[in-house]
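This entry is listed below:
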Amino acid sequence: MFKHEKQLFHPVAIEKPNPQYAALLQEQLGGGNGELKAAMQYMSQSFRIKDPEIKDLFMDIAAEELSHLEMISQTINLLNGHYVDALSVPAGEIQTHVQLGLNPGLVNASGYSWTGDYVTVTGDLCADLLSNIASEQRAKVVYEYLYRQINDKKVKETIDFLLNREEAHNAMFREAFNKVQCTGSNCDFGTTKAAKMYFSMSEPSPENSRFTEVKGKPPAFS
């Protein structure tokens, strides 16, 4: 069950409309590393998780990602202003101005529609957690790129908040992985001698490399 509370997870505002930047921000609404993708991925993965603590973690983060989606959508809505004007967006998606009446759409910055193909679900908790850690890291990178391309202080405050929340999610997924890293595919495979052999294929190798001088097991994930 979901309940919509009208108060945003974090307040959003802008200093002035900026349709071009609104087109860029669409990437975090309908893109492959955006908020909708994250919410659908974590929710979809949660259904077969047996560990109640980790199952709740996935659903809690999925619900928060939906709240981020609402924040991004509201910011895009404000940035689009009050008048349809495709000429105000010299590059990027223009669907907002020619199809959607300034409504934020489920498209990325290039105008391509959101797709369920963005979502990764394997049914293996270790694999899904590693995928989620990577997803959060990629989302951070996109937000960092967006942060550098706007001077609007209020928009930057929103992006800064979302960046920090992505890092919080990343840390929680890493902690969950540490709890289950000896289960599932990590237990079923990687147990033979071949799984504990590491080779340097680059010559000459840097001295004292932590990756080519591994004895018995690879560096711990933390």
Summary: The CA atoms of residues 68 and 188 lie 36 Å apart. The radius of gyration is 21 Å. The mean pLDDT is 90. The chain has eight helices and no strands.
